[in-house]
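Quick one, tokens below:
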């Protein structure tokens, strides 16, 4: 894959990158996930929550049309034992190049290759060439017989199981893609072959939502049963369900405008074609049955049909590739996947208010809350009742795949971020989605106990009085607390200075404190640094990144109109997760949040409180609103020590309610009462008036957790064999 395919923005391809549209992921779905799937898939379930404990098995997928993109150190990391399966979809690939990898054994699958090319490959690799899933199984059996990777006492169990594994080459499951991944994973757990009848060949329109719902519930039931079976076996099993993937494909009007898609690449065509093409390009799927409504044709009927088919076909290809990439991401823990229908205008009419050009920072919190509620209800109206209740009652974490702020989804008047911890993968660039998958496979990163000594906080606007004042206050407070010792605070006024700081300190966590800026011409978000701007291209070229990046600035991930948030660049530079902003934030609010993150890390990095970074970030962001709304009142009111003690007790009670998924929704709805109760009687009326004029808006509306924070565990929470 060309390196530009990994970036979003105007330079990103409209369609699907070639390497993701050649069928190799569809082929991969037919193959067993591992030997454990064939022999006893409950083993995978027992240990899937602990990425540091691999049982000697690890699946790796990497992809490229230019093999030179991968250096030998990366390949040795992906293939430590020197064994690899390569899917080749281009006859331009020279088989000799595969030998340059220096791997011991290479199994090669050529998809759609000519007989002449296949013969050339057979001459090069002998019997290690295959073109069907059953062919891979045959090679696997021969390989296991000779391989030293499998203990001799296991061969009598494993090899017969592999030999009895049957594959249905026709690959007939349900033709309803949103339920397909869940059914595939159910088969994995049940150790059934692909001939198993799990769903009808075709589904009536009225049955589609029921099929999707049942596929989710069935997979969850398998996880629960396998988890229960493992109890008492000496294996420590995480109590939470595996993360739920919620995928919301989105028609970004700026990405899929007519001029950008056509871009002078077609000969003059009729108005009927253009008009119908535009309709096809902007047609949303029905939320009732996932179908595309038929558009009324006008003018030349043939041109109209072709134009509509071509416009809609672009999205069909996108969604197919998206389903495949999500399958790979979900394969880590056989996660259930809820893929929603393609949407566009229904969201735009409310999201437009939040575009950097239209949104004006204001103290009119009533108006802001009204618009946030409208967006949340738009998501709500897109779900049927069973799915709503499934999400609300399921528990566990959520990985959202969308350019839309799914965190704002409203279910029963409660936003999604109150039901679950939510991280998000941006949909815009399929290449970026795929590279994040490869990175998560190849690199296991955890939050260590000494993480604060691996944290770098950089003020990029030291000449801005307000930003520097808040930054200095955090630096001073951290310096006064022994438990926060080791954090490095620096200033940078240029890209070169920032680059040198990152290279010198090599932080695990990088916090950038500055102003966020938006470039409407390139539809990108950038950061202020001194008198310059730091663009995504600068981030990549100067090597500015870290495993965890926190951006304390405005609009670093706009919710509407922009297709190249700067987070893309940090991911390309090596980040696993980026805490970014959806809306403008107050300088004090921003610095207060990252101070809380640092303060809480001093305890949470050493104590088994949060299993992963997603849970930690979510809790800090959810609960920060209490202090945000009460600090101005504490500064204004004259409270005695006893009254401050009452305030702290009420705040702690609310925090405890927020930390429990079963009481969190009530704590969210009743936060106003908690705030009023935290102050003495003589101030209650003033506090109530304050809350009426400035409705409580949680920080979770302002921030978004991008990347796979659910795959970043705290080291103290990691599983140790024999524990």
């Amino acid at each position: 894959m060309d390196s530009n395919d990994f970036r979003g923005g105007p330079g990103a391809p409209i369609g699907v990158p070639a390497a993701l549209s050649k069928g190799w992921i569809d082929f991969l779905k037919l193959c067993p996930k591992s030997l454990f799937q064939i022999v006893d898939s409950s083993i995978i379930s027992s240990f899937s929550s602990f990425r540091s404990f691999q049982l000697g098995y690890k699946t790796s997928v990497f992809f490229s049309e230019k093999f030179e993109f991968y250096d030998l150190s990366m390949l040795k990391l992906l293939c430590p034992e020197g064994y690899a399966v390569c899917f080749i979809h281009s006859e331009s690939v020279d088989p000799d190049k595969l030998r340059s990898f220096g791997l011991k054994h290479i199994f090669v699958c050529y998809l759609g290759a000519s007989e002449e090319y296949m013969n050339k490959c057979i001459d090069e690799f002998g019997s290690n060439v295959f073109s069907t899933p059953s062919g891979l199984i045959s090679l696997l059996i021969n390989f296991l017989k000779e391989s030293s990777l499998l203990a001799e006492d296991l061969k009598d169990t494993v090899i017969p199981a592999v030999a009895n594994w049957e594959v249905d080459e026709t690959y007939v499951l349900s033709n309803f893609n949103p339920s397909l991944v869940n059914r595939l994973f159910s088969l994995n757990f049940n150790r059934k072959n692909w001939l198993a009848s799990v769903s009808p060949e075709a589904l009536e329109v009225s049955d589609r939502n029921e099929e999707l719902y049942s596929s989710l519930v069935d997979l969850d039931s398998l996880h629960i049963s396998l988890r229960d079976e493992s109890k008492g076996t000496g294996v420590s099993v995480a109590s939470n369900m595996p993360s739920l993937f919620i995928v919301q494909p989105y028609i970004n009007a700026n990405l899929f405008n007519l001029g950008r898609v056509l871009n002078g690449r077609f000969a003059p065509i009729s108005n009927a074609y253009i008009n119908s093409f535009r309709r096809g390009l902007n047609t949303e799927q029905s939320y009732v049955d996932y179908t595309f409504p038929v558009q009324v044709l006008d003018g030349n009927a043939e041109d109209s049909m072709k134009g509509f088919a071509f416009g809609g076909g672009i999205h069909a290809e996108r969604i197919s590739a998206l389903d495949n990439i999500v399958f790979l991401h979900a394969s880590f823990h056989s996660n259930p996947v809820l893929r929603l229908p393609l949407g566009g205008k229904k969201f735009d009419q409310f999201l437009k208010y939040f575009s950097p050009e239209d949104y004006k920072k204001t103290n009119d919190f009533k108006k802001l809350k009204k618009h946030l509620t409208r967006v949340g209800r738009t998501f709500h109206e897109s779900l049927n009742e069973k799915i709503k209740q499934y999400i609300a009652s399921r528990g566990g974490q959520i990985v959202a795949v969308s350019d839309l702020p799914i965190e704002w989804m409203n279910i029963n008047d409660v936003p999604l971020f109150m039901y679950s911890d939510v991280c998000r993968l941006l949909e815009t660039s399929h290449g970026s989605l795929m590279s994040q998958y490869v990175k998560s496979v190849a690199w296991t990163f955890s939050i260590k106990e000494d993480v604060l000594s691996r944290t770098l906080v950089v003020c990029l606007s030291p000449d801005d009085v307000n930003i520097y004042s808040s930054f200095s206050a955090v630096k001073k407070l951290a310096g006064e607390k022994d438990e926060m010792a080791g954090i490095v605070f620096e200033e940078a006024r240029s890209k070169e200075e920032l680059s040198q700081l990152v290279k010198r300190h090599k932080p695990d966590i990088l916090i950038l404190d500055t102003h966020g800026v938006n470039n409407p011409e390139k539809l990108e978000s950038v950061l202020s640094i001194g008198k310059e701007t730091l663009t995504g291209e600068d981030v990549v070229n100067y090597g500015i990144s870290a495993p965890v990046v926190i951006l304390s600035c405005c609009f670093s991930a706009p919710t509407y109109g922009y297709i190249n948030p700067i987070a893309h660049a940090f991911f390309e530079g090596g980040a696993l997760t980026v805490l970014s902003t959806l809306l403008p934030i107050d300088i004090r609010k921003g610095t207060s949040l990252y101070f809380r993150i640092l303060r809480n890390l001093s305890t949470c990095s050493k104590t088994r409180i949060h299993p992963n970074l997603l849970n930690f970030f979510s809790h800090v962001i959810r609960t920060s609103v209490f202090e945000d709304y009460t600090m101005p009142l504490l500064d204004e009111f004259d409270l005695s020590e006893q009254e401050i003690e009452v305030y702290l007790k009420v705040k702690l009670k609310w925090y405890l309610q927020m930390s429990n998924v079963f009481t969190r929704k009530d704590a969210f709805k009743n936060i106003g009462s908690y705030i009023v109760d935290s102050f003495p009687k003589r101030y209650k009326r003033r506090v109530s008036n304050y809350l009426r004029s400035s409705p409580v808006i949680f920080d979770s509306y302002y921030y978004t957790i991008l990347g796979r924070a659910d795959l970043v565990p705290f080291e103290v929470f990691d599983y140790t064999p024999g524990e």
